[in-house]
Design goal:
- With about 300 residues, this protein is α/β, with parallel strands linked by helices.
- Helix content is about 45%, strand content about 20%.
- Strands 1, 2, 3, 4, 5, 8, 9, 10 and 11 form a 9-stranded mixed β-sheet that branches.
- β6, α7 and β7 form a beta-alpha-beta unit.
- α2 crosses α3.
- The longest helix has 28 residues.
- The chain is rod-shaped, with a radius of gyration of 32 Å.
Amino acid sequence: MELNQLETFLAVAEEKSFSRAAARLHRTQPAVSQVIRKLEESIGETLFDRAARDGSLTAAGVLLRDYALRLIALRREATSALGELKSLERGRLHMAANEYTCTYLLPAIDEFRRAYPQVTVTVQRMLASHIPDELNLRTFELGVISFRPDPEQFRTIAVYGDSLALIVSPRHSLAGSNRVSISDLGNESFIAHNVASPLRRRVIETFQRYRTPLNMDIELPTIEAIKRFVAMGNGVALVPNLTVARELEIGELVAVTVTELELKRVLRLIHRRHGALSYAATAFLRTVRDLARRNGPPFYYQVEKAG
């Protein structure tokens, strides 16, 4: 049973005539009769009362007509929905990021939603190290990470440049210093993030290389908690600049440059190299590109080569 057969069946039922249905469909009457005959053979039922001259339906024909009308309506609905998806009048954008990289996404999502308010946006929180594997499982379409995964599997777009900031309370003794040495931090109490990361390892290795104690007396589960705790006057912390822009602007926290800890990070949007992106994901990448062109550094949009 095919949709084109059902369309022909409905035309005959509505016109109550094979000849009028043929004219409506721009086909010959024998062609219409053949379609109906094949449809009847496929379902094993007679659909029209051949003895009647008014194109009357049999009981099977009446039953099938109701289903045929619903199926044709569903096809129209599906066609319309696909058109809306393409024009971004509906759809879903599903991404993954960790607590830090999600901060980068906020201005991009803001612009995207203003342009495409009917598209649903979901950002799933996930450890950055898990994002490539989940992309391969098609759990979501786009991920934000700060490292380059296998270039044969993933396409990466560098979108933001960030650095590490030593943050202190405005009342801290280091708040008046524009720049300090790592050796000046040996007696400080560091408020640390309790999730292992490549950045945390680099910081620990740097302190070891300069033979300076790193006193991580308190570990907290989120960057937001770390910022608030330091703002209350408790110790110091090393966090990405991106995550404290607002607090630095309003004077709630102060950033101090550490000569030996000027660590740079590049945030990347990634997706599967051999998979087609949805219309929504493609539009989001355009939004990110336009955001970078308009704002300039630290925003940028650079597709990284596979080699």
